[in-house]
Design a protein that fits this description.
Layout (H helix, E strand, L loop, with lengths): L1 H10 L1 H19 L17 H13 L5 E7 L14 H15 L4 E6 L14 E8 L1 H16 L15 E6 L1 H35 L2 H28 L6 H29 L4 H28 L7 H32 L16 H21 L7 H4 L4 H4 L2 H12 L1 H16 L7 E2 L11 H12 L8 E6 L7 H12 L4 E6 L2 E4 L2 E4 L9 E2 L2 E8 L6 H12 L7 E5 L1 H35 L3 H26 L4 H4 L6 E2 L2 H29 L4 H28 L7 H33 L8 H10 L51
Parallel strand pairs: 5-13
Antiparallel strand pairs: 1-3, 1-4, 2-3, 6-11, 6-12, 7-8, 7-11, 8-9, 10-11
Helix pairs in contact: 1-9, 1-10, 2-7, 2-10, 6-7, 6-8, 6-23, 7-8, 7-10, 8-9, 8-10, 8-23, 9-10, 9-22, 14-15, 14-23, 14-24, 15-20, 15-24, 18-19, 19-20, 19-22, 20-22, 20-24, 22-23, 22-24, 23-24
Length: about 800
């Protein structure tokens, strides 16, 4: 397959790029519509009791109130007995606001303190509420008008604005939270890109020492992003897709595009420096580095696909975005980039800036030494050597390898337990806060304090005894003679007596502590429909607290009227069901990702122990990342740096972090293990193979990790708390994996395991011999083999070739600019 791809891109590079341009334009046109199709919800299980209850409320009762208008009297208004909301002018403004809101299209179930809901008043009497249900088609416009009016300082009686009134009106509630999050995600994305792209560009220039070579990976990253947006637009037309998939598309598209292009460009430059012409160099690059990229992309896709087993479409959306972006990045790196390289040839090294940056002096000195060796070789070989001298030159090992990473490997393997155990201890210390993790679902507190929905939510929590926006919804379904007011009255009374209940609103009236304190509200359709009755249990505790979740369990344990079924929903029930959903599917997800990782790494290495090592070390790393996330985002440390409000971790976020970080770490696992395996298959001892493998991939892995981490850490600038956690957590997982895991724990483990690293039962060895994965051989080199002085013993392969199963080594001496050196 790779030979065919190489032939196409070398024979028809302009046609490949023309088709790419057409596809790019099409993706841009389709992708432009993605933002309008994405949703801010998606954290709930569609089959859970809370979601079923919400669906019934929407279907039979016009929807649960999702818009809260906080009406606050101006400071100069006092009112009778200090209750400013009872001032005649304030009361008139409140009633008119409720009446105007009820006439808005898409608005139902309007209630207010001044009409029929006395509890909707703050404890100090200066604020009151107007609540309503707004459908999705009218939410954006309605919320925008209220927010614009508030920000303009208008004291209006309705959304359109008007003459000054004695009140200010600020929108809140679930509908406003969704709109605020949608708007913030777009703004955060622009900020993250403005940070990540310039930093990434600078790092790429430093890594490659040239502008042309540095811009190629950025171009592949942008292709991945545009392709991902196009797929999101298409999928968003077919099913619900979360707005947060945009963040993953940007970060993963840029990161993987750079990662894969880095590998391809590095290999291509090596082959040019080895004396190959551009067609041969492209062919070798596609057959070796291209195969590695395909395998690495497959491991990332498999890890991301695991999120599809979870019902919330937030996680499914991340799987759609991640799979699409990874697939596009692989195709772009293996097909499009080689066509560009074919046209560029040696001009890939153009616009070099290494001489302007003081980081390249050692490499230039090494290149000068290599040039002297070339001259000596050419003089001794005479005319017969010709162009082959460049490929056959004797290059010091410290030029081919990273002396730093070889020293790290050597020191670690000299005392593997002494080096490895402190790292394990450090990771366990980082993981310790995860022992007291708390989970929840996003509410207004994921936003910063200046957001309208957040400001209203803070007032509701501090100034109101009960929180109507956090009410537990109970829908009783059954025969009409079992769901009427008389049959529901006893059930409502029992619910009102539960600990943590402020009141219960039902078709039998409003009940507190088992007593009816107000008659049923009008119209009757608010709480009664065909074969159904609707109750609102308003908690006296914070809706996202453990006490509210315990209340949900008490409500579900309370016997419903005979012959009926009761479903509990609302914010506290959503949290309970979200935890249950994740917990139920988590064993399956962990099992699938572990099994697929084991199979893929076994096919790659032929070892049983190495895949198990990878799974265990990844598990330790991710647990440490989760611990840091709890320490920061739940416990509130470093809040001054990231500007967030501490709170429980979103139930979906550990799953997202686990799948993405697990998949990305496989890139570095493949890079390192393939090089180690190459050296071991060539006859090197276990210790020498590990040292050479780390020395020859350390630069590449570190550079790739730094660039990938930049794209994710940029999202820590977000104004949405769980997106900050996602960006920072993923970046930390990448850096830990590329440094402590690959640099210390992998060499320490493989030194202790010795030859057992490569053990497999006889049947599995036979299976691997038949279907094991390898990169395949490279075409014959234009000259003699590289002498043994270059590094570990070769298998007698030609210069510039890579034995089966290899990943391209970082032979910096072959190119003045060299490969990445971070």
């Amino acid at each position: 397959m790779f030979t065919v791809v190489a032939k196409i891109v070398t024979c028809r590079p302009r046609l490949v790029l023309l088709l790419t341009l057409v596809a790019l334009l099409g993706a841009g046109v389709v992708g432009m519509g993605a933002f309008g199709k994405l949703e801010s919800d998606g954290f709930d299980d569609p089959a859970s009791p809370s979601t079923r209850a919400a669906d019934l409320v929407d279907e039979k009762f016009g929807g649960e109130p999702n818009l809260v208008l906080l009406v606050t009297a101006r400071p100069e208004v006092t009112g009778p007995d200090g209750r400013a909301v009872d001032d005649p002018a304030v009361a008139r403004a409140g009633r008119e606001l409720a009446e105007d809101l009820a006439r808005e299209p898409g608005v139902t179930n309007v209630s207010s303190y001044w009409t029929d809901a006395p509890p909707l008043r703050s404890d100090d009497g200066r604020s009151a509420l107007v609540v309503a249900s707004v459908d999705e088609d009218h939410t954006e416009d309605l919320v925008a008008r209220f927010e614009d009016a508030y920000e303009a300082g208008q004291a209006d009686q309705g959304p359109p604005g008007g003459a000054a009134a004695p009140v200010t009106v600020r929108p809140g509630g679930a509908a406003t939270v969704g709109e605020d999050i949608n708007g913030q995600v777009g703004a955060d994305l622009a900020v993250a890109e403005s940070i990540a792209i310039p930093i990434t560009t600078v790092l790429m220039i430093i890594a490659f020492g040239g502008l042309v070579a540095a811009l190629l990976p950025l171009g592949i990253g942008l292709l991945g992003i545009l392709g991902g947006f196009a797929v999101l637009s298409v999928v968003g037309s077919l099913t619900d897709v979360s707005i947060f998939a945009v963040n993953l598309t940007t970060a993963l598209g840029m990161g993987l595009g750079i990662d894969y292009a880095l590998l391809m460009v590095s290999r291509f430059r090596e082959e040019l420096a080895a004396g190959r012409d551009r067609a041969e160099a492209v062919t070798v690059t596609v057959r070796t580095a291209g195969r590695t990229i395909l395998f690495s992309g497959a491991t990332v896709i498999v890890a991301l696909a695991v999120m599809l087993v979870f019902p919330p479409y937030f996680l499914k959306s991340m799987a759609y975005a991640g799979i699409a972006v990874t697939a596009v990045a692989v195709v772009a790196a293996v097909v499009v980039l080689p066509a560009v390289l074919m046209l560029l040839g040696s001009r890939v090294n153009a616009l070099r800036v290494g001489g302007l940056i003081g980081l390249f002096r050692r490499r230039r000195r090494a290149a000068d030494a290599a040039a002297q060796a070339d001259a000596a070789t050419g003089a001794g070989a005479g005319a017969g050597a010709g162009a082959g001298a460049a490929a056959g030159r004797a290059v010091p090992r410290e030029v081919v390898e990273s002396p730093f990473w070889r020293r790290v490997a050597t020191v670690t393997m000299r005392r593997p337990l002494l080096a490895g155990l402190p790292v394990v201890a450090l990771l366990l210390v980082l993981a310790a806060p995860f022992l007291h993790v708390e989970f929840g679902t996003p509410d207004d507190r994921v936003l910063r304090a200046d957001a309208s929905s957040r400001a209203v939510g803070d007032v509701l929590r501090s100034d109101f005894s009960s929180n109507d926006a956090g009410a537990i919804v109970v829908v009783v379904t059954g025969p009409a003679d079992r769901t009427g007011p008389e049959q529901v009255a006893g059930y409502a009374a029992a619910l009102s007596e539960l600990d943590g209940v402020a009141r219960v609103d039902s078709s039998a009236g409003t009940l507190i502590d088992g007593r009816t304190v107000a008659p049923p509200r009008e119209p009757a359709s608010r709480h009664t429909a065909e074969n159904a009755s609707y109750l609102r249990v308003v908690p006296s505790v914070e809706p996202h607290s453990d006490e509210a979740q315990a209340l949900v369990h008490q409500i579900r344990d309370t016997a419903a009227p005979a012959g009926t079924e009761a479903l509990a929903g609302g914010p506290p029930a959503v949290i309970v069901d979200g935890k249950d959903t994740i917990a139920d599917r988590l064993p399956l997800a962990i099992g699938l990702i572990s099994l697929t990782t084991f199979v893929l790494l076994f096919l790659f290495t032929g070892s049983v122990l190495l895949p198990l090592k990878a799974i265990v070390l990844n598990g330790i790393t991710l647990t440490a990342v989760f611990g840091v996330a709890v320490w920061i985002f739940q416990d509130g440390h470093l809040g001054w740096l990231f500007d967030f409000t501490p709170g429980p971790l979103d139930t979906s976020m550990p799953v997202l972090l686990f799948c993405i970080a697990f998949g990305l770490s496989m890139d570095y696992e493949v890079f390192l293990l393939s090089r180690i395996k190459e050296e071991h298959d060539a006859g090197a001892s276990n210790a020498e193979a590990v040292a050479a493998g780390l020395a020859r991939t350390g630069r590449l892995v570190t550079t790739a990790a730094a660039l990938l981490a930049v794209t994710f850490v940029a999202f820590s600038t977000s104004s949405v708390r769980f997106m900050q956690m996602f960006g920072l957590g993923t970046a930390l997982a990448i850096l830990l994996d590329a440094t402590l895991i690959r640099g210390v724990l992998v060499p320490a483990f493989m030194r202790v395991a010795g030859d057992a690293n490569w053990w497999a039962p006889k049947p599995l060895r036979a299976l691997h011999a038949r279907i094991g994965l390898s990169e395949g051989g490279a075409p014959a080199a234009p000259a003699a083999p590289v002498p043994a002085a270059v590094g570990a013993p070769t298998a007698g392969g030609p210069a510039g070739s890579a034995p089966a199963g290899s990943v391209p080594d970082v032979r910096t001496a072959r190119n003045n600019a060299g490969a990445p050196s971070l």
